[in-house]
Write a structure and sequence with these properties.
alpha/beta, twelve-stranded mixed β-sheet, disordered N terminus, binds iron/sulfur cluster, globular, binds S-adenosylmethionine, 12 helices
Length: about 325
């Protein structure tokens, strides 16, 4: 056994003592929707296909991560279901001995078609972005149709995914009259609901800032109608949960702006072009693609990952420096 494999489990500790055990893997920066707070209208500056990591390259990097103690990976994007053969890639990743949990974030437009194959491939959990249940408003926010998303959710349920989490970006003047409708929808379908604060990123940062809503306001609004009790959610990530009394509904609040959770950050992000981003809100990164294509060995790759974790910054500065992040969420892997 060489030095690297004996380091295993303890290798990915960053300079602030945080253990990195979770990778968000962007398999494409393209998307079949255009949520206004995520991708600017007419945006076309996508990564060239020859720069996309291949399935072999992705598997290699994730394998190296798992051998260094990473146990969980989330497929994201852009929209991960627009990447060809996503179920095959999922199967390859779930076959890696160290990977305990492969999950997916999706807008669900194509989920109807993929849910069963993804479930068979071992994807264990699904998060679906859904900001409105009103078809016209959904179209205004995303540029797309609501019905395929609802069909996708039903297909995911039928395929056996549980829990299914709905991620709703809470936006002042956009969907702040719909929180209770979303609560009722999630109670009815046995989904978990999570509210998210908008983050200023790239060319959409002004929109995100204009419609920013502190989630304390949402919580207060809900507590006028429902009795909220403390809730727990295994593997709930940075969300803080409450439960509505006498229901199964758990509601999570993801508050990157009003109460950031950087001190417990356990993740890094790998973008479709093989850039490893150490923080969503900072530019610290390591380009893995040239190394992979120049014939780096497995041990050198692991050494590179260990060194990269040493560059992880302490925290994002979305609140103090909202103009700082020039990348879009869809580029980094949200
Ligand atoms: N396309 C998939 C989806 O929408 O779930 C996965 C990628 S998307 C970038 C991941 C998450 O990022 C979504 O829940 C989306 O709402 C969120 N998101 C995108 N831009 C954001 C922003 N500026 N502020 C807060 N959340 C954002
Ligand atoms: Fe696409 Fe997801 Fe961004 Fe919406 S939030 S534009 S669905 S990547």
């Amino acid at each position: 056994m060489n030095n690297l494999t004996t380091q295993n489990e303890t290798s990915l500790i960053d300079p602030f003592g945080r253990r990195i055990e979770y990778v968000r893997l962007s398999v494409t920066d393209k998307c079949n929707l255009r949520c206004f707070y995520c991708m600017p209208k007419g945006f076309k500056d996508f990564e060239q296909p020859e720069h996309w990591l291949t399935h072999d390259e992705i598997e290699r990097v994730i394998k190296a991560f798992t051998e260094l103690g990473v146990a969980r990976v989330r497929l994201t994007g852009g929209e991960p279901l627009v990447r060809k053969n996503i179920s095959q890639l999922s199967k390859r990743l779930t076959a890696l001995p160290g990977l305990k949990d492969l999950s997916l974030s999706t807008n669900a437009v194509l989920l109807d078609k993929h849910a069963s194959d993804l479930h068979d491939a071992g994807v264990s959990r699904i998060n679906v972005s859904l900001d409105s249940l009103n078809p016209e408003r959904f179209k205004e926010i995303t540029g797309g149709e609501l019905q395929p998303v609802l069909d996708g959710l039903i297909a995911a349920k039928q395929a056996g995914f549980s829990p299914i989490k709905i991620n709703m970006v809470a936006m002042k003047g956009i969907n702040d009259d719909e929180f209770e409708d979303m609560v009722e929808f999630c109670i009815k379908h046995d989904f978990t609901l999570r509210f998210i604060e908008t983050m200023p990123m790239g060319a959409t940062r002004e929109d995100a800032t204009d419609h920013y809503l502190d989630l304390q306001t949402v919580k207060q609004q809900l507590s006028q109608r429902y009795e909220l009790v403390p809730g727990v959610m295994p593997g709930g990530g940075p969300a803080r949960y409450v439960q509505i009394k006498n229901t199964n509904l758990r509601i999570g609040f993801i508050t990157p702006i009003s109460q950031h959770f950087c001190e417990t950050c356990n993740r890094v992000r790998l973008s479709v072009d093989g850039t490893l981003y150490l923080c969503l809100g900072q530019d610290d990164k390591v380009e893995l693609r040239p190394l992979l294509r120049d014939g780096i060995s497995d041990d050198e790759l692991k050494t590179t990952l260990i060194k990269a974790i040493g560059l992880k910054p302490e925290k994002h500065e979305f609140k103090d420096k909202p103009d700082q992040v020039i990348r879009l969420m869809s580029m980094t892997g949200g």
